[in-house]
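Model: You mentioned two targets. I'll fold them one after the other.
Researcher: Yes, keep them separate.
Model: Target one:
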Amino acid sequence: MRYIVTVLVLLLVAACDGSPQASTETSFSGSTMGTTFMVKVIDLPDDLPAETVRNDLSALLKDVNDKMSLWVKDSELVRFNSSASTDWISVSQDLYHVTEAAQKISVLTDGRFDVTMEPLIKLWGFSTREKSNEPPSDDDIAQALSVVGYQKVETRAEPMAMRKSMPGVTVNLSAIAKGYGIDQLARYLESQGIENYMVEIGGDLRVKGLNARQEAWQIAIEKPDVTSRSVYRVFPVHGTGMATSGDYRNFFEANGKRYTHIIDPRTGRPVAHQLASVTVLSETAMQADGLATALLAMGEVDGPALAEKNGIAAFFLIREGQGFVEKQTSHFEAYENGVQ
């Protein structure tokens, strides 16, 4: 659905000068969901061993992978996709919750966000490490589109279940599941009495409280540059989920034309607009994750308009000449101005 754009997190290490204002920072990191994760906890409780936290975080991430990954051969989602049945299939609360959240974003964006696009993602070569060198044929695109459409998947709350309208329909939650994983880790930390933390997976994140210097967490948005990685802008963040989606890391060129991994489910083809990057702040990382992808797919006109209308805190970087034009919603501006 989208290639995770790294949000450069400025990790502020506690000062070593004996200052009473400094707190202790404990870090946990590793690999998950085809990318990396990092968790930073400020003032870990004395009765909570770091090894216990590490093991619990790993178990939670494994559980999310076992339910929603397309790379785990026997994951719950893989089993759903492999089924040819069009009857209701019982699913876990987690899989139901994430799919239902994705469907709501699809409705909000008139289908520009669509978790059934795996056939198109594969067709264009964006689900493998080796990208395609040539665009697919019109016939191949039409065939893939026949099993694409968020309306082809239904969710049911009581009892929790999902079903597809035709056997070939598949679900890909990669544009929202990382955010859900972040939220799961954040809930765990809070259940342990931890009020100051940062959780990051593949560039998406959620923070609460203050960093080790007892300041707001400092987060940087990456400059949308295909040749290098650098910071575009830094701002303080607290008590929110955050995700950035961009079109400049996963693409290929053929016959002088650039094809991005952001695919329009209405046409089956990569989008062609000037919106390079979208950053969204939301109460949960899952919501920020899905919305960032959706708004990027909508482009530099429809994306900001929908975000403003629906009270979404979003920051847009739009290509103009050799540089970028910034656009942000009033809710993003209000959030930024409110951070101390």
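Model: Target two:
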Amino acid sequence: MSLRLALGGFMHESHSFAPHPADYEAFLTPAGFPPLSAGAEMLGALEGTSVAAAGMLARARAAGDEIVPLIWCFASPSGPVTDRAFEMIAGEMLSRLARAHREKPFDGVLIELHGAMVTPQFPDAEGELLRRVRATVGDNVPVVASLDPHVNLTALMVEASDALTPYRTYPHVDMRETGERAYDLLMRRRALGRPFAKAFRAIDYLTPITSQCTLVEPMKGLMAERARLGLRNDIAELALAFGFPYADFEGCSPALACYGDDQSSVDATIDALKAAYDANEPAFAGGVASAAEGVARAIRIAATATKPVVLADTQDNPGGGGHGDTTGLLAELIAQGASGVAFGLINDPESAVACHAAGEGARLRLALGGRSVPPPLDVEVNVIRLSDGRYVNQGPMTKGNRSDLGPTALVEVAPGLLVVVVSRKTQAYDRMLFRHLGVEPEAQKIVALKSSVHFRADFEPIAAEVIVVAAPGPVIADPSGLPFTRLRAGVRLKPRKPA
């Protein structure tokens, strides 16, 4: 029997202390993800992409379900979403949902969310959105959402939905598969004929973004334990949320949720996972190198390596709320005379436009970057190649997603030091960032990237070594240095180190 399902998405990761808020326009031209779209246009925009909603859509179509598209949108991580943008997008989503539900009641609602969206009025923005969805369709219509594992999972989010399922990976190479799992969870909830038994637990310490990668310990082991505990037949979903440690509200922290047929089994399963998470606290207390240390080490390794050394500029990660325009790491590479370098990227529309005006082969002086966190870098550059910044990603995380970075330039800022200058920020997800400009990352001695972890999906396989560095920027590696005022009592700002 085919079902009538509503499908939508509203994605943003909000850094309370980042300098640039996300207004409505930020959702119209995101880099590397589909732009805001609604109705039938939304289905076309999702086709062939890596996002969770595409997985939901594929599963529903294969089952012959009737799909009612609402609205889907994404904006690059930044400061909080403005109240105006939230109400415009949530209002459109809810009005479409209510109108279609009145015409013919839904059998279920599927929504793709990030889970770390903050607005001035609603610090738990996804909790508020799910509350509104539940109020619109009532208690008897199952509501299931996919999440980014950097969700700041809250009790309201769990209460207002039937099930929530985060990606299992960081880098996020299973977004589409998570959407498929969300669809399957909705089907299991319908087959059960009643709400799942569910439980929620918050973790009492923040974990740095750089220590949350599922390719390495301790998160690799915790995710394996999550999988082991979730194998029981009466457990439908065991959700492990890493938290996004830059959101200043009481729900900021890692958290867990569990769903199943039996409450006692659900409680026992989630308590076992919480005990494992708590036991791993000292293992999350790692550090990163300074820019000077990281560059010196990269140059030393690159002298004999047969593969590039990858430097990750974690504190200006556009995927964590950075603006992608700080120059600390680039300045250090210049100061230490690094060559054979491809640097991706500097988000600086003014410099990109100036390069396009000058043309390929030109030499000109730029005040490069430094718009969000001064200073800019005073450099004389050679314009090597120009592009419109449009390409299709090919790597394992965002394969099929279209990037549109606006006017883009490849410039040489020092002998053998190439920099990609773009007009719209994006994280360095994919080698196509360089390849669409004629640069092969594999052929470089050093590849420097604006990213914390997501780069690993496409760049770690070609790397001799990965070095995460902390140059000045808003996405600070140690969240305990942020001026939090609204966290709940008892949350530790950093993991306790080993005794």
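Researcher: Noted. Anything on target two?
Model: The chain has a mean pLDDT of 96.
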